[in-house]
Amino acid sequence: MSRKDAGYVGALDQGTTSTRFMVFDRRGRVVSAAQKEHEQIYPYPGWVEHDPLEIWRRTLEVIDEAAEVRGLRPKDISSIGITNQRETTVVWNKATGIPVYNALVWQDTRVADAVAHLSEDGGQDRFREKTGLPLTTYFSGLKLAWILDNVKGAREQAERGELLFGNMDSYLLWNMTGGVHSGIHVTDVTNASRTQLMNIKTLEWDQEMLDAFRIPRTVLPEIRSSSEHYGDLKRTVLAGVPISGILGDQHAALVGQACFRPGEVKNTYGTGCFLLMNTGDLKVSNNGLLTTIAYKFGNQKPAYALEGSVAISGALVQWVRDNLGLIEKSEDIEVLARTVKDNGGIYFVPAFSGLYAPYWKDSARGVITGLTRYTNKGHLARAVLEATAFQTRELVEAMEADAGIALGQLRTDGGMVVNNLLMQFQSDILGRSVIRPAMRETTALGAAYAAGLASGYYKDIEDLIDNWEIDQTWTPQMEPATRDQLYKQWKKAVTRSFDWIDQ
């Protein structure tokens, strides 16, 4: 039997808070899934780490669990795709497979001093023309440099060719394909574009960037397309299944939403909030957005995207749950927010790790403004949800200015889209239609699509477009004057978060 005739396609979705394995049928419907959380490690303010070995253990567990639930074996799975939290940085010893330090998570801000130092010569946009990215704590390259400079012996080991680096996709692929026994050390163009070490035009590691960040080329993975055969799974009950798709999580969501035409936009409401527009050709932002690779399927030319990134969205709901104890479950935030008719005049700017697009202010910190004796926990819950919608509008406005394309509708996905109050407010504050697809697990689905295209399980992208279906559409119900006043107050609140930390 040919791989293209297998019944299903799989996806490993390694996210910020959990790892899951999902199995899809040809129509993109979930037939089996397993998910496990991993520890969030906060050694100091602004530092965020994960244990890579724990994530690797969770990976093995969820693959086996999802397969066993349906009695699936290698012959049943055409191929597997990987999608992952981007920018999260791992450095490990290639002889032992042991990381030299915990993974530095994308939210981690410990490299702020390096950002300030490099920005002295040419400013924050010093490398934007070459990499599509501003200088900020967000990306992998400076995190890699920090590990090499701060872990005893790491730089010397790297120079001797003993260490390997990767975002989480490279680390897991290396382990999944054999690890110390000839594991494959590659990454795809979407993940490489998030290191700030790849030239956005040539799709190759850039020597000027390596020199500026003091990165030895020997630690870097080979850059490949997002959809091709990299190697075969060596562990779990699915050993032998080809791994043939890699996409960073937001790029995977774009593919899962079938945004293959220039101008099509999706917004993922997860730990952070990420708005991507397929621009087709390369467009360098003048409004604080990122230029990134949308995807590259096999030998086809790459598609580019503009991206707006918000560090804290769903994570703010988790903070209200875990740090304040105002709710027991994340979904309770909507119930609490519905106890009041509006936000009571308060605004919550969640700049816990600074502000991302369109501001890129690492020195900002979170603020709550407009508090009075009238304020209660329902108003706070409203402000928490509205913060995500306000930040999304800021990204949409920047994206329309950069692309010269007016947004007609917004396709949404991610864990927060089950919140109907948020979706309605998002439509109201944008003044546009907001669409929730029938399949909400678009990140994992996008990775499965990339793998399925490479293995022949899917014939072409038209197969993927045919799978996309609408679950619900929200249209604006708010008066324009009210919309404008709320947004004006939000913009005022954002300025109060600026420069809280002295650089």
Description of the molecule:
- By secondary structure, this protein is α/β, with parallel strands linked by helices.
- The chain is 33% helix and 22% strand.
- It has 16 helices and 21 strands.
- It has helices spanning 52-70, 112-119, 128-131, 140-150, 154-159, 168-176, 189-192, 207-213, 249-256, 314-324, 332-337, 377-403, 420-430, 442-455, 461-467, 480-495; strands spanning 8-14, 18-24, 30-37, 49-50, 77-84, 89-93, 103-104, 163-167, 186-188, 222-224, 227-232, 242-248, 265-269, 273-280, 290-295, 303-310, 347-349, 367-369, 409-413, 433-437, 470-474.
- It has a 7-stranded mixed β-sheet with strand order 15-16-14-13-19-20-21.
- The longest helix has 27 residues, at 377-403.
- The termini are far apart.
- The model has no long low-confidence stretch (mean pLDDT 94).
pLDDT < 50 runs, ≥5 residues: none
By DSSP (H or I, 4+ residues per run), the number of helices equals 16
Q: What's the rounded overall pLDDT mean?
A: 94
Helix content: 25-40%
Characterize the overall form: globular
Q: Using only CA atoms, what is the Rg?
A: 22 Å
Q: What is the CA–CA distance across the termini?
A: 61 Å
Beta content: 15-25%
Q: How many strand segments?
A: 21
Structural class: alpha/beta
- Largest sheet strand order: 15-16-14-13-19-20-21
Largest sheet, if any? 7 strands, mixed
